[in-house]
Amino acid sequence: MRARMILIIIILPVIFLNSCRSDGPDGTDIADSLWVGTVETADGYDSYTVVFEFREGGDFIMGDPDDIIIYDEAIDQNFTWSMDENYITVTGWLGMYFAEYAYEYSTDGNTLFMILIRRNFFNETYEEIRTGDRIELSRDEVNDFQYYFSDDYYSAY
């Protein structure tokens, strides 16, 4: 009986930590990096700038400097993310916000392609990314989320 308890105590943290891992199948690590890129709608006509930050502890921040496709309210929310071999999942509000993306990670580790495959209707409170929309992100050297929402960013144009 004691051996079973010890085994359970050892196995449960391993299962829990693996379910919240930040890397994909080949040691792909997207955490603690700022990713900047564009969302191209499924109809191929529009392209919007987005900023994603995947944090090591499982926290996720998303924003749109122009407040077009991701609303300002999203920046202050507590979203979480997880990644497995095929999908990146973002959740929030005790699961009421849900988005699942198929992804491809470049071999050099600097580009992340995502396609939204599932979401729920609560998402419209924070963003207008639709099923089939494609997101192409590049690892950002500035690595400062707030930079993209400051006067410095807009004065660069």
Question: Main attributes?
Answer:
Lipocalin, alpha+beta, 157 residues
Could you explain how this protein is built, in words?
- The protein has 157 residues and is an alpha+beta fold.
- It has a single domain, classed as Lipocalin, CATH 2.40.128.
- The protein is 15% helix and 36% strand.
- An eight-stranded antiparallel β-barrel has the order 1-2-3-4-5-6-7-8.
- A hairpin with a 3-residue loop joins β4 (79-83) and β5 (87-92).
- The chain is globular and about 65 Å long.
SSE inventory with pairings:
Layout: H1 2-19, E1 33-40, E2 47-54, E3 59-63, E4 79-83, E5 87-92, E6 97-105, E7 111-119, E8 134-139, H2 151-155
What's this entry about, in short?
The chain has 157 residues and is an alpha+beta fold. It has helices at residues 2-19, 151-155, and strands at residues 33-40, 47-54, 59-63, 79-83, 87-92, 97-105, 111-119, 134-139.
**Which range does the strand content fall in?**
35-45%
Which CATH architecture would you pick? Beta Barrel
Low-confidence stretches: 12-25
Number of helices: 2
Oligomeric form: single chain
Shape, principal axes of CA atoms: globular
The third-level CATH topology is Lipocalin
User: How far is the N terminus from the C terminus?
Assistant: 67 Å
Please identify the top-level CATH class. Answer: Mainly Beta
The strand line-up of the biggest sheet is: 1-2-3-4-5-6-7-8
Helix content: 10-25%
Strand/helix succession: HEEEEEEEEH
What about the largest sheet? 8 strands, antiparallel, barrel
Total strand segments: 8
